[in-house]
Amino acid sequence: MCIRDRSKAAPKRGIFVMNKWAPANLARQQQSASPLLAYAHRCSFSKKTVPVPSMGDSISDGVVFELLKKAGDYVKQDEIVAIIETDKVKVDIKSPESGVLVKLFAQQGDTVEVGKDFFEIDLAGAQPAGQAAPQQQKKQETAQESKPQKQQPTQEKPQQAAKPSPQQAAPQQAAAQQKAQQPQTHIGGTGGVNRNERREKMSRMRLKIAQRLKDAQNTCAMLTTFQEVDMSQAIQCRNDFKDEFLKKHGAKLGFMSFFIKAAVAALKDQPAVNAVIVGNEIIYREYVDLSVAVATPTGLIVPVLRNCENMSFADVEKGLELLAKKGKDGTITAEEMAGGTFTISNGGIFGSLMGTPIINPPQSAILGMHAIVNRPVVVNDTIVARPMMYLALTYDHRLIDGREAVTFLKRIKSEIEDPRRLLPVSYTHLTLPTIYSVQISVVAVSLKKK
Questions:
Q1: Residue 317 burial class via C-beta count within 10 angstroms: exposed 0-12, middle 13-18, buried 19 and up
Q2: Long-range contacts of 189-198 (CB under 8 A, 24+ apart)
Q3: Which of 78, 110, 243, 401 is catalytic?
Q4: Runs of H (alpha helix) within 349-422
Q5: How far is the C-alpha of 447 from the C-alpha of 450, rounded, in Å?
Q6: Lowest-confidence pick of 175-184, 238-247, 404-413
Q7: Please, is 78 exposed, middle or buried when counting C-beta atoms within 10 Å of its C-beta (0-12, 13-18, 19+)?
Q8: Beta bridge partners of 369
Q9: Crossing angle for the helix pair 232-249 and 402-417, nearest 10 degrees?
Q10: Cα atoms in the 13 Å half-sphere on the side-chain side of 80
Q11: What pLDDT score was predicted for residue 188?
């Protein structure tokens, strides 16, 4: 009879004595748990937190102007989630990737800082079936609305108004007589009096404009000098070459390009107008970055044309057209509105006859253009009607003396009244009729060939 020693029995199947092997059912456990682990892996790594992006060098925060998406919505890559309003522009906040919007860390009207968490997105989230084809759904709804619906005519029996009883009629007649006997205290029209009021919160842009304008009044010693300019020659030049200019350069020829080129020449002649006070020093800029005031639905913005001293008429007009379009669309950036050295404001497009513009800090002067109006003027001892415009130059008297200011404005007047001054030196000997007859529109308008 053979007796086995149970204490020295072989190890269990699948188990190594040095614990190098797991139990036999461990593989099955891992296989059954793999979907759960994969789900946990996706949950931990598929969510992404998107911070408030940089909105400009000098902008550190903004206000959530509008939320276009809410938690639970599916957003595509580069789709706008919210709009943030800053002191200068409105910035579109876009989703960097497609997914489901899990959480918003700010609500409409909240102030958010650059770099702080703004929203969280689940990259593993699937697009709902209802959002797969929104255009087809709209087409179906439009088709259903366009189908005529048959309506069955319904006949309603006329109801006779209930006659008041004698007991009810007596008090009503007495009240009507008493109302007629009361004296009428209303003075004015026969219509109703409207005393309603509406209160709105000021936007960040409007608050910033108000602050900067008030700071300019409190800081600068502002003084305004005036001139009037005869626009006859500039109007004639524009009418003669506007069609050819549009055909060649794809931009309309306006009066703003004449004044910008004239301002560049005057700023080179009077560098103090292009300078700025910083502390106890005066910085003279040898370049000309002109700020041009543009009215937008959200307020007045002042984008900048860089290095106008190197620009032709065509460059100026194309640059102005681009900045105006960006300003109206709300796509202009903060960098495009920073760093101007001199400002031109054209209130004449709204019919302003004369005004005193306010300096755009930290600049030292601003030129105001106004409406062109036919007025009687004396030319060669004869009274004639000429298209005249008033010009206003507001300047900081701390830096610019009256002599420099008046000389600057007279230089602009001379450039506009005789556009030959805006031509290259080799063509200044020509008279305007000669210039028009030889059709050198590219030189007269563009100053350089492209």
A1: buried
A2: none
A3: 401
A4: 402-417
A5: 10
A6: 175-184
A7: exposed
A8: 346, 391
A9: 70
A10: 11
A11: 55
The number of beta carbons lying within 10 Å of the beta carbon of residue 1 is: 2
Cβ contacts of residue 209 below 8 Å, gap of 6+?
299, 300
Q: Is 429 a catalytic residue?
A: no
Task: Convert 410-449 to b/e letters by CB count within 10 Å (16 or more is b).
Answer: ebbbebbeebbebbeeebeebeeeebbeeeebbbbbbbee
Q: For residue 269, indicate whether it is catalytic.
A: no
Tokens representing 347?
């209130």
- In the block, residue with structure tokens 């209160």: 199
d(CA 66, CA 82): 6
Q: Which of 235, 237, 229, 230 is nearest to 431 (CA)?
A: 237
Cis ω on the peptide bond leading into residue 153 (within 30° of 0)? no
Q: How would residue 138 be classed by pLDDT, with cut points 50, 70 and 90?
A: very low
* pLDDT interval class at 223 (50, 70, 90): very high
Element (H, E) at 268: helix 255-269
Closest CA to 115 of 32, 52, 31, 37: 52
C-alpha to C-alpha distance for 5 and 448, rounded to whole angstroms? 109
Q: Count, in order, helices (H) and strands (E) of the chain.
A: 10, 18
Catalytic residue among 61, 92, 397, 418: 397
Rg of the chain's alpha carbons, rounded to an integer? 37
Q: How far is residue 264's CA from residue 326's CA, in Å, rounded to a whole number?
A: 24
